[in-house]
Amino acid sequence: MRVKSRLILGVAVLALGLGGPVAPQVFAPEQAQAQGPMLPDVADLVEKLLPAVVEISVQSKNPDAPQGAGPLDSSPFKNFFDEFLKRKQQGQNPPDGKDNNGKDAQKDPKNNEAPTPAPDENNLVNSMGSGFIIDPKGIIVTNNHVIADAVNIQVHLQDGTLLKAELVGHDPKTDIAVIRVKPDKDLPAVAFGDSDKARIGQWVVAIGNPFGLGGSVSLGIVSARNRDINAGPYDDYLQTDAAINKGNSGGPLFDLEGHVLGVNTAIFSPSGGSVGIGFSVPANEAKSVADQLVKFGETRRGWLGVKLQALTPDVAEGLGMQKPHGALVADVTADGPSEKAGLKAGDVIVSFDGKAIDDSRALRRIVAETEVGRDIAVTVLRDGKEQAIKVTLGRLEEGEKLMAQQDAQKKPAAGATSQALGMTLSTITDDLRGKFKIGDKVTGVIVTDVAKDSAAAAKGIAAGDVIEEAGGKPVASPQDVADAADQALKDGKSSLLVLVAHGGNAEDTRFVALKLK
């Protein structure tokens, strides 16, 4: 009654605020049609899609793995959920000894639905997620983090059937995995749609296994596109306000035509529950990865052999560009495809295989999706002029091994210390390399001090950073940096572009434009 009285009081205050009594109004369906379309009725659609969405139970050997479907520890329903999940994850049958299909799970010799005991079960972690069938013969797409470190994987179909699953392949970079079951008959399956055509504001339906409840449906819209949540190198998530909770991971996000628009992967939530911000791997990316996993059991991504950096306005100015566009090459891998083709650090890639490149994120995705071994036309900006270069694309997985195996570059001889642009610079000696923990692969000159209020300090350069290039040329002595600054002034430039290894880390290099005046 207290809540109800407050509501009545709120209405009364609102009416008084309007200056007098408000006549009741009757809202007719005709008015809804005149004002715009009503909320969609998705009951018929969901009825067709539900059989293709599955629940996935996993026993993991990772003791630190998160419980993908459990409620918060503070939940008043924790005991209920714990018992509920325990029964489902262990494949227990109802008290009458029958499974959900009425079969005797203990006596049916063809029954492959009974769980396989895992070794050392006391040290395993149980978790649950979602997935969806893309091939009637039993191919299922889910998230990599759902099945990570799995010892046993079981799939619960909508009709209650429980099947043992095997891992086909997984890709941590996109958080996509493919598993396979062996059913006695063809299973209902769904198809991927074209996520490039997804529009902000269009209706979508999420189906999954939140908190282990299974077969749950939520309705929402595409809230945003191209979201980068720093989850991997190819982040390009669809954002949705359709309710997604723990256990929905790996489940499908459908459009209203019944096509898979995305794979539900992550949520933003201070509480652990849905607050209307969920993220899905776009269907086009998920389909490309899933196809490779089914065909090869692994991914085979294209590799350009460059380290990329975001192109900021000040760096663009230092390169002589009027406005930033394209992907800036911060480093070129030795013996990689780009080095063999003639690409250099400081080049800005503005076109790849005939496609305009807006930024480094876009280039990473396009390269990864391009067939290994193809000859690709790449257009770069170098010294303010466009230049066409043909690159034979390598394979990323092999490139990563190559980079890990490359020997350390030779160390330069010790030299004098000098100052330039507010920095005290020194040739890298063994003592300085040890003092500042400079990586063996890093060459150039080390920053030993930075003057306050200098251009270098304003750009975040600090003692221990290493200047590898200045003005587009490698540096071997502090004087090289000073000479590059003098030359830039003579050329009428307002800034000098330097390549900095932050903290002496070869894996953290970036271009910085230092003001000359």
What is the strand and helix layout of this fold?
Blueprint: H1 2-17, H2 29-35, H3 43-49, E1 53-60, H4 78-89, E2 125-135, E3 139-143, H5 144-147, E4 150-156, E5 162-171, E6 176-181, E7 203-208, E8 216-227, E9 237-240, E10 252-254, E11 260-267, E12 278-282, H6 283-296, E13 302-303, E14 306-309, H7 313-318, E15 327-332, H8 337-341, E16 348-352, E17 355-356, H9 360-369, E18 375-382, E19 385-392, E20 394-395, H10 396-405, E21 418-420, E22 423-427, H11 430-435, E23 445-450, H12 455-458, E24 466-470, E25 473-474, H13 478-490, E26 495-501, E27 509-515
Antiparallel strand pairs: 1-2, 1-4, 2-3, 3-6, 4-5, 5-6, 7-8, 7-10, 8-9, 9-12, 10-11, 11-12, 13-20, 14-15, 15-16, 16-17, 16-18, 18-19, 21-22, 22-23, 23-24, 24-25, 24-26, 26-27
Describe this protein's structure.
There is one protein chain. With 517 residues, this protein is of the alpha+beta class. The protein contains 13 helices and 27 strands. The strands form 5 sheets. Strands 21, 22, 23, 24, 25, 26 and 27 form a 7-stranded antiparallel β-sheet that branches. The chain has a 6-stranded antiparallel β-barrel with strand order 1-2-3-6-5-4. A hairpin with a 7-residue loop joins strand 26 and strand 27. The radius of gyration is 29 Å and the shape is elongated.
- The name of the CATH superfamily of the largest domain reads Trypsin-like serine proteases
Gyration radius, rounded: 29 Å
Shape field = elongated
**How would you classify the helix and strand content by structural class?**
alpha+beta
CATH architectural type of the largest domain: Beta Barrel
Residue windows where pLDDT falls under 50 for at least 5 positions:
1-24, 65-81, 92-119, 407-414
